[in-house]
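Aggregate trends can hide what the representation actually does to any particular protein. In the encoding step, the backbone of a single protein was reduced to a row of integers, each denoting a local shape. The record that follows shows the chain in one-letter code together with its fold in token form.

***
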Amino acid sequence: MGEHRVAVGADARPITPDLDTDTVFLAGFDIDRPATAVHDDLMVRSLAVSDGGEPVVLSVCDLVGLTRVPGEKGRRVLACTHTHHGPDGLGFWGRPFDGVSGLDHDYLRRVRATVADSQAAAVAALEPASLLAGTAAVPELVRNLRNPEVLDDELSVVRAVRDDGSVIATLCGYACHPEVVAADGTDVTADFPGHLCRAVEAAVGGVAVFAVGALGGMQSPATEVNTHAEAERFGAVLAAAVERALDGAATDAAPAVGFERAEVLFRLENPLYEMGMELGLVPAAERRGDEYVTEVSLTRLGTAMLAAVPGELFPELGLRLKAAMRAAGATVPVVVGLADDELGYLVPAEDFVVPADYLDPGAQYEESFSAGPTLAPVVVATLEELIERAGTR
């Protein structure tokens, strides 16, 4: 690779369901919301980076989330954008009171196979590259509906380019629920992340990958206009901010690449989750004794660090992880949400109020869709250990 220490490859391919043959309950808002049309394709987008060893591969699906698959994954991470207009990947959004899961297992098997093909294609496409990275504030698009005092409005960007300046891939991270399109809509759509990726690809080429950040709390679109056109506007604003984030960024032809994964054990303290598994509505999670298993990972790409979390991290905890990554030497910290698992909201322990009624939680909606108060602290503590180790290497 000459002076280059890294090679980068990317791939994108559709995972759009077939409404004629697939059972599609749209996930993220109300239950029992069957899809009636496809507005735009759902995609899996993959980025592979290698410094000569095993590649690090990040794939992101336009889905509300996917449950963890136990087993060795190597240096491969699978995350979701959390669009609220894609098929149910968890099982909650079918007709649960009638015993009907929201999952179409045949569709999800095809998704997993397509992800594997996309990751293989990204690795096969590896070519010498340089990286550049930067951040930009985009406060006009996001608000925190639970705690307006806390907001993460940072757009983080990592781009891989060839020697001639042409773009191989652009990774974008931003913390906002992809729920611009109306909650009662029945179109399949990737919402603003799809528009963002298409806009970046049209402007500069290559493959764009969107990773949703610490969107819990809840970080939601700052708009009352819930249309496809508004989602497209969000994508266009973010695509322009991508170029602003990289304006003046130095190109690094020899970036350090690293990866570490760690298991996290936690107690499940949500009766709805337990009931869902007992009834077979949601997949059974891996269990060890009285605890369940999930995982986190940390990727280093030059001046950027990517902290992957298994759910919807509250922004105060996302900002804490970003501060830790900066303290460890990263200038561009990225939180990758819904990565390798989706356990719902990762709520700070001090902010967690147990709902009086999990079926009618009121102001405790986030707690009702959370594994419990002990998960977020152990997720953050485990990642802080990985970050500290990465900073000493």
